[in-house]
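To assess whether ligand presence alters the predicted conformation, the chain was also submitted together with cobalt (II) ion. Input:
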Amino acid sequence: MEKRPVKIMDTTLRDSHQSLIATRMPTEDMLPILSKMDQVGFHALEVWGGATFDACLRFLKEDPWERLRKIRAGAPKTKLQMLFRGQNILGYRHYADDVVEYFVQKSLANGIDIIRIFDALNDMRNLQTAVTASNKEKGHAQVAISYTLSEVHTLEYYIQLAKDIENMGANSICIKDMAGLLVPYKADELITALKGAVKIPIQLHTHYTSGVASMTYLKAVEAGCDVIDTAMSPFALGTSQPATEVMVAAFKDTPYDTGYDMELLSEIAEYFRPLREKALESGLLNPKMLSVDINTLLYQVPGGMLSNLVSQLKQQNAEDKFYDVLQEIPRVREDFGFIPLVTPTSQIVGNQAVLNVLAGQRYKMVSKEAKGIVKGDYGETPVPISDEVVKTIIGNETRITCRPADNIKPELEKLKKEGATYAQQDEDILSYALFPQVATEFFEYREAQQTKVDPTLADKANKAYPI
Ligand code: CO
């Protein structure tokens, strides 16, 4: 059989710690192992974006841009990847196009090679600005499809989406299975269909939550999947990804052999093992996160959402309502046009399900964000929301059908002025743009510590793109 080595993106420095330890891995824990990770020959290292940006500023009191530049310097040979939430960038609202474009420029200038861009609703209009900006800067734009199950999410639906993604100028496609819903034989079907429909590479991203993920990768790779996402074993499994070493071993001496050095991987794992132990001891890593949770398949709810629900219900002294809420989630999702559950829709649907159950009546209380979904503020839902649901939730309020960002005027100039007080580098304006309050607190902390942005690292990026 013809050799077709599978490529691996290692997520240890981004998704794995976001999924297992609330995104709390500090940069100082990453730097010492980078040179070894750089030797493996990974397709890419996922190191930035997602929740890491927010967590750096808010909890770790670190400059996310400095983190990126230090990682870039520590792993010069390997491509670096980030996760980007389309028009939401790394925040929780839609931003104007000029901010999205500037963020893409700066991410690439500071060391990112591949930008994985997704939209919670799979509304392609919310991805176009970021893809075009990445193309312009000669970055690799990967568009991720938020994978979900429903009567409308058929193979034909995914094939059409993949064709649209290829046509919009993306360099590759990722199936982003954030909840671990993709079971092995369905993966075979899906990857086979997509490989037959588009020419650009297909990558698969899943989580181990439901326990099927490594089998899913096996079938996906046999079906032609080009790249899979894994994490080093100490930060793998549970709500994280399948283990890197396990997948490498599984494909050894087959046509899909990665050729990676198992000794080297074992040394890298050895480095991360004490960090895992430390997280278990401090309680940051909850052993519950590491076990198989079959509810995710039954209720199609991402693992992170389940743990959020438990703590939300605890606060309300309504833990006994857990299963009622779980059953309510798919109903709310259906009412909202079968939207996928991923940041921020997972929180919005989860909250609304809680409100419905606690109020004892559907949509008696409705969150502002849930109204936003119905109004079209987040984009177009996979199927239109029924007139009845619209009427119940927003009455006669106006809905929008355009791309939400079309209603946002350019805002970069204004943000530059507002954020100027503490800015030590161009990038600070973008931190401020995404999280005005949190970034300001971080800048004040930085001033108080008399810390300066490292000019040797910052210079290159700033010269490339002066404000
Ligand atoms: Co993920």
